[in-house]
Amino acid sequence: MDCFCFVILHYQTKTDTIECINSILANILYPNLRIIVADNGSPNKSGIELKEQFKGYEQVEVLLSPDNLGFTGGNNIGFQYAKHTCSADFIALINNDTIIEQKDFADAIISKYKSSPFHILGPDIVTLSGQHQNPVFNKLSSLRAVQNYIKHYRKVLFLNYLCLDTLLEKIKKAFIPKSNIHIEDISMDIDHFSEQEGVALHGSAIIFSGLYIKKYDGLYPGPFMYGEEAILDYFVKKDKLISVYWPEVSILHKDDSSTNYVYKKALKKRRFYLKNFIRSLRVLEKLFNEGK
């Protein structure tokens, strides 16, 4: 029987992680199931507390990293453990602020793979407000777009230090060409209710099949946080991988719980996002240049 592994990235927000783990244990009936919690060096010792709390659970393993390796690095710890130690046939990277209530979640994905093989699958991701986050519009699909965003967000970051960045966001349409950087209401044009191939997928829940697992050891290890979706989509296109959005499986996403926990002030949260997003854009810029 295929081994289906969930990898949950944990950072500080223990209540969310416990709720995520319990939702899987309570709802998913698939027998060959593993849950790998990758603690990303939580300074509040919540990773150690989780390891103690779930030490009697055969299906749950908590891995402790001494350092915060970011979204990609933390997920890759769990991915590589699932691949090399658990011999996983399927690996679902999910945020700790997600909840799964669909009992046939794993069975349905495995059945889908057997009838129509894929490298990567994205479920229907629904927020608490009822928004559907998959598939996503990849605004970083060309070198020119990436370079335009780097220029733009460097300006926004500078203004953030002056506490003026929200002002720029309100007036940016007036002096930044729409074709270069700003696409208005693009989400309104995305079909969230039909199966689609070759689309970019939201990073809060991504399922990798054995086709991907055999070829890669996780996500591309460049960025610390943000921009992972565009980088994954870059490799989907470059390496001709099969990615599919399949709304027959779904997951609930509470969204940004770890970032909100650490950065309670909106100004600092925006600054954290801008600094790390620019770093990710630089990684993507380098990839595009190398691929010329």
* Overall spatial form: globular
Class computed from helices, strands and strand pairing? alpha/beta
The CATH topology assignment of the largest domain is Spore Coat Polysaccharide Biosynthesis Protein SpsA, Chain A
Q: CATH-wise, what's the superfamily of the largest domain?
A: Spore Coat Polysaccharide Biosynthesis Protein SpsA, Chain A
> Can you tell me the CATH class of the largest domain?
Alpha Beta
How large is the count of helical segments? Answer: 10
From the N-terminal CA to the C-terminal CA, the straight-line distance is 43 Å
Based on DSSP secondary structure assignment, what is the total number of beta strands? 9
- Strand/helix succession: EHEHEHEEHEHHEEHHEHH
Low-confidence stretches: 179-186, 258-263
The pLDDT mean sits at 90
Task: Describe the overall structure.
The structure is a single chain. The model is unreliable at 179-186 and 258-263 (pLDDT under 50). Strands 1, 2, 3, 4, 5, 6, 7, 8 and 9 form a nine-stranded mixed sheet that branches. By secondary structure, the protein is an alpha/beta fold. The longest helix is centred in the last third of the chain and has 25 residues, at 266-290. 43% of the residues lie in helices and 18% in strands. It folds into two domains: 4-135 and 189-255, Spore Coat Polysaccharide Biosynthesis Protein SpsA, Chain A, CATH 3.90.550.10; 140-182 and 257-292, no CATH class. It contains ten helices and nine strands. It has helices at 14-27, 46-53, 70-84, 105-115, 143-161, 165-175, 210-215, 228-238, 257-262, 266-290; strands at 4-10, 33-39, 60-64, 90-95, 98-99, 120-127, 196-197, 205-208, 243-253. It starts with a strand and ends with a helix. The radius of gyration is 19 Å and the shape is globular.
